[in-house]
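Handout, section B. The chain below has 219 residues.
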Amino acid sequence: MVLYKNTYKGNRWASRIPLHAEVPCKVRKIYGGRLGAILWNSTANLNRALDKQGMTNADLINAESVGLPTTYIDPKGQVQDFEVYSNIYSTSIYAGASLAWFRNVAVNFDKYEEGVDDGMLTVFFDLQYAASLRMDPVYYSPNPATTAYESYSTKPVKLSPFGFRAGIDGKFNRTLSWAYGGEIGLRPSIKGQTFYAMFKITFPLFGTSLDYNVETFGK
């Protein structure tokens, strides 16, 4: 490792022959398998889903094959788009693999900048399949005061039961014990609306103070 000070800048650093220190260190590789389940539910805007799939509210029909309206008249007499929402439920399983690099060493030098901090970097990839993927019907009444609510089927909305995700996690446990992570993928959901992306930064709320410092001397 190169020994460096913040005062070594510009011509002063360019004209120096840097000092080096040999530090025994081993980076371990960890190969892993992943298997689990995900329970997920959310509210879905059916207007956007139907528009992407080339349909309208009229394709959501009741027992008499009557479709939902696409517009309505508000109390001011103006025509407004008829917004439709529903709930989607997903129970999926996933299987995949991961690869981690683990460097369990941290080195500081007297009178020099910090040499290296320990860390663990993991990348992973999963395939997902929704064994159960369903959406609630839409209940609507033209006049709630005089007409009972009717059920309108959401079966015309196409769902995609397959998905995948790829991600990365990094962890450190010396200075702040912080970690970061992120993943992107396609989750089982409404066809055309399956893409998602996530990024996270985490900090510990509780931890013990373990001091494993070892003082060494070298020429």
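Note. The radius of gyration is 29 Å. Compare this with the example in section A.
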